[in-house]
Predict the structure.
Amino acid sequence: MMDQTPVFIIAIPLFASLLLTLIGPLGPRVAYGLLIGALSLSLGASLATMVRVVQTGQAIHYYMGDWLPPMGIELVIDHLSAAVLVMIGVCALLSGIYSMHTAGQDNHDRLNNYYALFSLLVTGLLGMASAGDVFNLYVLLEISALASYGLLARGGGKAYFATFKYLVMGTIGACFYLLGVGYIYIMTGSLNMADLADILSRESLQESVSIRIGFTLIILGIWTKMALFPLHAWLPNAYSRAGTATACLIAPLMTKVSVYIMLRMMFTVFSADYIFNQIAWSSLVIYMASAAVVLGMITAFAQRDMRKMLTYIIVAEIGYMTGGAWLANTAGYTGAVYHILADGLMTLSLFMAVGAIIYRTGDTSANAMQGIFRRMPITAAVFLIGAASIVGIPPTCGFFSKWYLLQGAVQAGAWIFVAALLIAGLMAAIIFFRLLEAAFFGNLDDEGLSVGHSAPHSGTGAVQMREAPLTMLVPLAVAGAALLGLGIYTNEVVTYLIRWSVPAGF
Amino acid sequence: MKPFARIILFLCAVMMLTATVDLPDWADPGSPASTHLSPGFIEQGYHETATPNVVTAVLADYRSYDTLFESVVVFAASLVVMLVLRRTSTGTSRIKHFRPKREGRDTILRGAAQSIIPVMQIFALYVLFHGHYSPGGGFQGGVIFGASFILLSLCYSLKFAMQRFKEKMVLICCACGALLYAGIGAVCLAMGWNFLGYAGLAGLLGVTDVMARSHGILAVEAGVGITVMAVMVSLYYDLASGGDMEEGL
Amino acid sequence: MDEFFFFIVAKYNYWASLILLFIGLYGMIAKNNLMKKIIGMVIFQTAILIFFVSIGVKWGASVPIIRFFPDKQPLLDATAYANPLPHVLILTAIVVGVAVLGVALAILQNIQRIHGTIEEDEILEDMRK
Amino acid sequence: MFPVSFYQIAPVIALCASLLAVPLIAVSGRHPNLREFWTFAAAALKFAMVLSLTGWILAGNVITVDLINVLPDISIQLRVDSFGMVFALVSSFLWIAAALYTVGYMRGLAEHAQTRFFVCFALSLCATIGVAFSGNLLTMYLFYEMLSLSTYPLVAHHQDREGRGGARKYLTFLLGGSVGMVLPAMIILFSLSGNLDFADNIYGGIIPQGTGNLLVTILFVAFLFGFAKNGIMPMHAWLPGAMVAPTPVSALLHAVAVVKVGVFCTARVMLYIFGIDVMDELNLGVAAAYIVSFTIVTASIIALTKDNLKARLAYSTISQLSYIILGVALLTPSAVQGGLIHIVNHAFAKITLFFCAGAIYVASRKKNISEMSGLGRVMPFTFGAFALASLSMIGAPPVGGFITKWYLLVGALDAGQTAIILVLLASTMLNVAYFGPVTYKAFFGKPNDSISENPKIKEAPLIMLVPIVAAAIISVLLGIFPHIMMQFVRMVTT
């Protein structure tokens, strides 16, 4: 008998999602409780799996329906997927807890259905991170995509058009992926990742044009999904117009998991040798990544709306990870993987902090930041940590991912990427500095106004402290602490998780 | 932008078409796809699952994990469409103006529907349950079953169909079908086999492992059928009425 | 010339599906009307389905349903049946396509309701207001 | 003496004393006396810990403490050696003096947000000790950044347009330098050598043999200018801008924490990362010496033109800092000793000067030198201290600055750099030219009406006066008994 933990990671949120649709009449509290319970159990299973993977040092293979691969479908949880699973679990749980007030605000009715989609999205992401079969990955990709369309469209108004664009691009991406899988299937006859890797390493297929086209299609599809420059146009509108609870779930996770799929495809299905010696696009991709990093940051700089600014920063961060993965050395790969974890947490804490500020002020523009340090000190502190992490200030985790990425870029001699990373760091510093300065001191010209605005019910002092509700504050604080914790325990993360997943051939 | 897109697409097309050189010929029995996994399915599938229809065996057993999520995909679609569209009547819908008025003048239609719908539903059940032996299965059966309700709604009215098959019930069916599928997986898990390992049902049903797989396939196909049927109806209800459930097409 | 002709004929399934695919992709990218975009999307998806299902075909093979000899023994010869796996895959892909189509239509209805049009340029104009 | 295990803990306690004080200060914001008590307690504890290490260090030991392994090959590591000890002693002692003075200043002017001020003050001191005790480049970088961020609210303390502008400039230069130059240089260095630990002596460095000369030069330049806190032109522009901060902050920034950290980092990197041998081989030392010579002379000339006392002091700081780097860059033992001892001498002298400027402002609300004519008669102690500290800046015996000049000149002679000798002499002249008139006018100038007619102007409060006089006296003592600090500095070069 096998250890059954891996399947619980996925099955629990799946069951929760199905049950959530059935328990509508029981009211939002039950729905919320069920969601949180399921997400925590799933996270527990992820943690248990990770511990086992780390202890045994071997990937866990779970055969669905007791069919051995390649005929059956297997879940494969190796060091990389274990790390990503835990990251997804943590982010989902935190944003789930956080969603109590904001989701209710956005969904007066049908909260249970909203939560069902929420849970389904998490199922899809967890499934993708543990998939060992390329077609299964496609189905899960579509599940999470469908769920995200629904959640994003809940933003209403302009969100519909943005979601439609996202839907079109997402479908193109997923279909390209599927077509690529088709090419690979034609040439190999298999769908299992390990089996594919085995077949693809044969001499005869190394030169094959079809395999190359299949790889190109898969990578293009994934790039569309993860909004790599210049395929990023759909992302900022779609994410920034969503409701707060939705944005907090989707923004940190969707693109990160896509990056994970890219890594999977590049290094598990194909091999580092094939990609960097046969395909040999590295320099082109690094240019694209550098462009993504710099242009993403510049565009973020031009935004007034805070959430839109954050979404452009996501575009830039995607460039970090893509560049790191294509640097073709251990440090770059480590940086890319570490940044998946770090960026998930960073984006989560920033979106949650901004969401809390919007929740309290009702203002999405940068003006809302004024005097936040005095009114919402904890929120502001987490925002500060998140900003420091994006800028790359030790000991937050953003510094260490940048460290590895820069190291990888230096070793690979990719000076353009080094320059892009440094410029992006400085740009991010400026972007966040503007906000934080306002947050710290309030606006010069209308200090009184911003203070008065914050005190709807009369308080004793001139400045009324009015933090977000506790269900928002706790996940915020945890996310902020996790940013520091991940930074401080970089050594452990790298030694026990990432080093093991470094592909052969580096 | 448009000429640009055209040129890029054209170039891509030329590139990909010329690259077909490498691909195996049409219907080549020696192609990798036909020689790697598929012989395994064909030659072992019957012995392992007692299901002559290999497609069904692969769909609902070897790759049942995929199919589970496939039914979840449609379930998700119905949820999304409902969340996006469904709202209690708000009065001004611009779609309404284009709808023909139907006030009991379509006797022929209704008569035809009356006679065809029961047949359709029986046929749907046949397709579903005969999936082991002939082309068919949960999806096909579910779609046909769902179509019968759509036909009902088209020939009578949305309200009429909704009286027969209430919106709440549709949603419950959506979830229950998928739940049945996943639940069977969970039962197998509880019996000490892997998730969706239908052989775990053998002890419960008192049959051999192979027959248990066959029964398992049937059960999950039923689950898929229920979900797909309900989703078809749900999508129609929402899309046809623009979400207010006042009037269909 | 003959060779080229045979090349086309031998691989006409790919040609057909790829041409269809690019027609659909063109519609998705270049069309201004969102409904046409959706139609393009469906063509695009269908092309991929055709592409997939054409892999399963084998000369001299029938549908992958095991046939029985008169003595009830099954005929388990792999060359006698078409490849079942692509069928399974496209069955899943069809369902996914339907689901996406439903969602797209639902969103489109709301776009029409909010912006009063489904022409992309008019929507963009409307949003700028 | 203490048990050996004590020496493993003491640096950590010294580091954390002020960090622990932060929450205590923050929660006792409503009780100023309690709040100030925590500050003093932390300062005293920190100084005691640093002091307790002196004997052990002087005995030739080096303490290394691994705090956390953040990266597989690099840990956050504390290392206490004689070089760091010099700086730690100065900064931890001056924190006590500065804290005393700050209390007087802040209460005297009834400044706002005092709690925030003390919190940031404590944080920045933690970072300073961290830099002094850091065992590798990453640790140093970490504390360097922490210092930049924790001093930002101090610089922007007034929160007016000018304050925020200055603070913005401050952060732009510091972060630009550190993120834009030091970080990549550090990573390139790590890629080259595989570790970032400081070398055991000042000669070898850690750059592996056979590294391209151009690359080493680029790294050197990046480190030299990247540590923008050291005020080398053209990265000095933040310094006058940061003048808008309250005077205790200026004192802290320019005498103890910020600029000294910049210079300390530069010197640390030059001596323990590149090493004298490499710098000598590639002529990097000479190049650096000329770069800083330019800064010395130019900054002094600019200082001459400034009428605002604090601005003049700021440019004086820029020029004096370069002395320290100059000493290190000359690469001869005497020069290095002269440069390093100047960290101490300049710290005490400059903090005196800033304290005086602050005292003058608190007592008379005067900022410009031209308005201070005759003020020395009303405030004799303040201006007396000012005069002593000026002498130290100029390098006249018996004040500490003389020791610096002496060693620097000897070092320059050893190195055979005539031009540098001329620079030092010119700089001395300029120092006289811009410090002399201040004291002279204050004591012998004709009091203008606003001073003579305003009976309210008298000596600053005692709590401010004590640190001023104490710092000035220590400045003198450093000149009379130079060997106290010189023994640390000598250990560096042997």
Summary: The interface with chain A takes residues 21, 25, 28, 34, 37, 41, 44-45, 48, 51-52, 55, 85-86, 89, 92-93, 96, 99-100, 103-104, 107-108, 110-111, 114-115, 123, 127 of chain C (CB under 8 Å).
